[in-house]
Amino acid sequence: MSRLKAEHLYKVFGRRPEAAVRRLEGGAGRDELRADGTTAAVIDASFEVEAGQIFVVMGLSGSGKSTLLRMLNGLLEPTAGRVLYDGQDLTALSPRELREVRSKKISMVFQHFALFPHRSVLENAAYGLEVQGVARAERAERAAEALELAGLGGWETSWPDELSGGMQQRVGLARALATDADLLLMDESFSALDPLIRRDMQDQLLDLQTRLKKTIVFITHDLNEAMRLGDRIAVMRDGRIVQNGTAEDILVRPANDYVASFIQDVDRSRVLTAGSIMDAPGAAALGDAPATVSAHTPVAELFTPFARSGAPVAVTDDTGELAGVVTRDKLLSALGAPADAPEGAAVEAPARKQEVSADA
Ligand SMILES: Nc1ncnc2c1ncn2[C@@H]1O[C@H](COP(=O)(O)OP(=O)(O)O)[C@@H](O)[C@H]1O
Ligand SMILES: [Mg+2]
């Protein structure tokens, strides 16, 4: 069973929303409704998120991402459709039950994280626990653990204004982690950060995720970020999910021209991993001491071993067992180069492309 499930979710702002849903179901577009002063923010969104997955929702500003996210934790009531969390219909809960689920099981991390200026970093991280009514000593212990996880060990007694923007965002993450909520909803949580710090935060989230195995819905307008973080990615356009797939699906099989226009500038060598392009072990003979990489290695890092010998590279899984092989031809074809490039042709890393962002 999936941890989180959205079934035909609609959110319409403005007059007579139910009537608008019926018109949308009948095929009316967002623009027709807008002419009547009605905004269809989310239209017929359905998807499932498995436990332990990072599910990314990617789309331009105004495409309905935040509205969708706020329906997932019951902050906004759907105009139509259902949200199931562990099989429980959130839309059917009483306000009291909903508050309970929201404070214990679901945590939200926003883009601009408001810290209380006159509370220490520890007290800020403990805020969610305070709301839950957890006793002071336990609060302090759990918040300190969460700060450690978020890379802020040692900063407990500092004040928010002593922290950089990136560190403040980590306090936000720590606050969410401290509550032990299993579902994290992250709305453009890293979007306000400088590119280098942002990358750091992405790495840290991926690292945390291998240990904590939360279920995460992460919103971004940045396709590179989506591809780095997402086990699955839903691309939204004008309120609708136009594609839902893995980073590789979206790169290799874009659902339409709209999605294709986004992926043009994505650096494939950083998105694709050895595990995503490998063949079964035995598909190609490995040498005596083959170069070995983990399945999570970006293919960009395979250029060095190939430049050295051209021989197939061994790929291991998380337990260190041989999981597959990557040949030079496979690497080239995955990157979109002709597979019949002359034998011995230099395999060079393409120049890093500029990071693309949907806002650009
Ligand atoms: N409370 C609201 N009332 C009216 N319109 C809204 C409201 N919230 C969002 N919208 C509209 O819904 C659409 C989707 O907004 P939003 O979900 O914030 O998109 P995103 O997060 O992708 O930028 C936009 O056209 C926005 O103006
Ligand atoms: Mg938004």
UniProtKB/TrEMBL annotation:
Domain ABC transporter: 4-263
GO terms, molecular function: ATP binding
InterPro entries the UniProt entry points to: AAA+_ATPase, ABC_osmolyte_uptake_ATP-bind, ABC_transporter-like_ATP-bd, ABC_transporter-like_CS, CBS_dom, CBS_dom_sf, Gly-betaine_transp_ATP-bd, P-loop_NTPase
Keyword S-adenosyl-L-methionine found: no
Domain of life: Bacteria
Pfam families recorded: ABC_tran, CBS
Region (Disordered): 337-360
Basic and acidic residues composition bias: residue spans: 350-360
Domain CBS: from-to ranges: 286-343
Keywords (A to Z) from UniProt: Amino-acid transport, ATP-binding, CBS domain, Nucleotide-binding, Transport
Family per record: Belongs to the ABC transporter superfamily.
Database matches in NCBIfam families: proV
PANTHER family: GLYCINE BETAINE/PROLINE BETAINE TRANSPORT SYSTEM ATP-BINDING PROTEIN PROV, GLYCINE BETAINE_PROLINE BETAINE TRANSPORT SYSTEM ATP-BINDING PROTEIN PROV
Protein name: Glycine betaine/L-proline ABC transporter ATP-binding protein
Organism this protein belongs to: Streptomyces gamaensis
